[in-house]
Amino acid sequence: MRFVLEVDVDGFASAEEKREELGRILRYWAGNLRHYALQPGDGAAVSDSEYRKIGSWSIRA
User: What is the DSSP letter of 51?
Assistant: First the structure.
């Protein structure tokens, strides 16, 4: 099983904003994964703190 998280943080002005947003995304999805079976094909869109889609995660074989 492979967990793939891909996000685009180029839209954030500073390195600090990028770090904060990535930290928030990782904390959120770490807690939210319990709602998924974690089987190939599972996945979801990833949004930033302003609810703009900036990526996705997926489970692959």
Answer: S
Q: Supply the pTM of this predicted model.
A: 0.82
Burial profile 20-41: b = 16 or more Cβ within 10 angstroms, e = fewer: ebeeebeeeeeeeeeeeeeeee
Structural tokens at position 12: 């954030």
20-60: pLDDT as tens digits: 999 999 999 889 889 999 999 999 999 999 999 999 999 99
Q: Are 60 and 40 in contact (CB under 8 A)?
A: yes
| Calpha distance 6→50 (Å, rounded) | 18
